[in-house]
Amino acid sequence: MRNLLYIEWIKYSRYRTMNVILGGYVLLLSLIFVSFTELSFGPFELFSKEAFRFPYVWQNVAFLSKFLNLYLCIAVIFMVTNEFSYRTLRQQVIDGLSRKQIILSKSYVVLLLSLASTLMVFVIGVIMGLINSNVVSLSLFTARLDFVVAHFIHAFTLMSLAMLFSFLLKRNGLTVILFLTYAVFGEAIIRNTLPGDFTLYFPVKILTNLNEYPSIEAFENELQLGKDHVPVLNAAVGLGYGLIFQWASYWKVLKSDL
User: Fold this and answer.
1) Model's pTM, two decimal places?
2) Highest averaged pLDDT of the listed ranges 94-98, 145-149, 217-221
3) How far is Cα 7 from Cα 97, in angstroms, rounded to an integer?
4) Quick one: angle between helices 69-85 and 146-169, nearest 10?
5) Is 32 exposed, middle or buried, given 0-12, 13-18 or 19+ CB atoms closer than 10 A?
6) Angle at CA 109, nearest 5°, toward 78 and 231?
7) What residues have CB less than 8 Å from 104, skipping those under 6 apart?
8) Which residues of 96-117 are buried (b: 16+ CB within 10 A; e: fewer)?
9) What is the pLDDT of residues 210-225, one digit of tens each?
């Protein structure tokens, strides 16, 4: 695993597009929460104070952060499609890497990015929670912490889907357009044209339902929108989708011409 990640690091550490995308992710994620701490008027003050105290901070930080996972997906798309553009996959096979090692190297990067993103969400949650909470206790700190795990599942599965799109389409521009179309509104259009409750189990819908609404105590009781925990079925199905997408990418690499 270490050697495969080192190979990926050598290839992409000096690739400007990847650095810009990943740097943009970190910058935007930081700016979002810095801006909320500066909102000190009207309803925004209520949101910034109430939403980011324990235990609600976990759900709300994860909710806002999940939209930036698309940034990470674009990074994965460029990572994979550039291999086809520059024919480096074929060269790696010639140099002695197996097809299994090639797909594992990409899977490890997806896993590493998911863990790094989740760690950032956790650290931001801790900081925001300590700043905005009048009372901090172990029970308040750990309540709703499962939404951080939900963020990992969301990031991992969405990036796994982006990786599958990349291996199928092989061109970065086309892959970015079709993936974003599907993830942002394409799947919703498909679901609306089909009858039956099974549409609730489409991949993006499952990931959305992991953390569907932000949570504020003052609004939860009245509107009854918030959830105080991650639906276990959604989490299991969402993670299952991620593993299926990884397996499908593995199968595609094994069977296709590089």
Assistant:
1) 0.91
2) 145-149
3) 11
4) 30
5) middle
6) 105
7) 1, 4
8) ebebeebbbbbbebbbebbeeb
9) 988 776 655 555 444 5
